[in-house]
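Note to self: keep these together.
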Amino acid sequence: MQRLAPRLAATIGGLAVVISTVAASATVTFDFVTVGNPGNARDPVTRHGAVAEEYRIATTEVSYAQYAEFLNAVDPSAANALRLYNTSMRSNTGGGIDLVAGNPAGSRYVPVAGRENLPVNRVSWFDAARFANWLHNGQGNGSTETGAYDFGPLDANNEPLDPRSIGRNPNAEVFLPSEDEWYKAAYHNAAAGTAGSYFLYATGSNAEPISDHPDDNPFAVNYVNDDGIDNGFNDGYAMSRSTRFPIPGHSPVGAYTQAASPYGTFDQSGNVWEWTDTGLGPLRRLRGGSWRSSASILNARSVQPTTGSPHTSEDEQIGFRVAAAVAISGLPGDYNNNGQVEQGDLDLVLQNWGLDSNGGSPTGWSNDLPDGVIDQAELDGVLQNWGGTAAPDLRGTSVPEPATAALLGLCALVVRPWRTRKARG
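Structure:
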């Protein structure tokens, strides 16, 4: 198997570490699962869950760390003109993002240590939709006002004059799930194909879930259940393991690793209520229940879904997750097929340089190898398309930070002369 010369390998390895450090601060990524069985029947009881097409949905809720990256990108001076930052994220005992005015621009929103992976909360529907727009537009300096959702004219508070008119655009690539999309991902029996078969809980089960701390039981769920029995579970609040009010009450996103929905999502039962983009008059639907909810709230059929004001509904029980169109394969440089040319693709090339396809493709590699070997052609694919997205005509492209761009260019200069000397030798 062809391998990099030791000096070249060390050089590129060092560059990769530096590039990773620079790029990581400017890119928000999610693990998505594809929700298949398009054209499935709705739940015959609730009449929710029918979705005509395949789509993807994030396996976890948006975290504080991810939301802080968003804030620093779209509001580097921390002026907070769009009111994307609720000051209770800092002052509230369950908060997770500090505002450090003395930090350099673009780094003033700082995740609280130890709470980076808790779900962001105290976010309005407008905040969530603007986050989706930013992702749709390639992150970086991407717009928050158009994309998946067009906000239109704003009032003096930078809120839409006509919020009822805001709906998902047909070309949306990243968006908030509709109520039916959310419901299907949570409760539909994936093994049933398109049949209208649904579970009662977003754990792939009709059995009432256990309330417990994720460190004690990864099969449990973060909600309130006190059975009055000293049995080590169902002792009240999941995170305090008792009836004592927990601070914070949220669990890290995806922490209940064995409590996934049939399609592979986590925390659609409990932790935080999640915004959908389905409207009901001036309100928007919320789904899933929170860490303060009872089992009856988590049950798909026992209660009606909750609604919230897109303007004012911001509390410690409300967060969100994003969904996306099905990835478009064949994007040049997108070797891991996640819809974007980014650090993961560069890592795949550098870590598997010289691999011959006769020996099998590396784990995570989804594109064909035109010449059968991972070499200069694949590196060029990353360098020339860095920041590209699966549908650049719809989502635009994100441009790497200047330092990242310079390092990528340096990487190319290091590799190309070595390849030329090798060919001549």
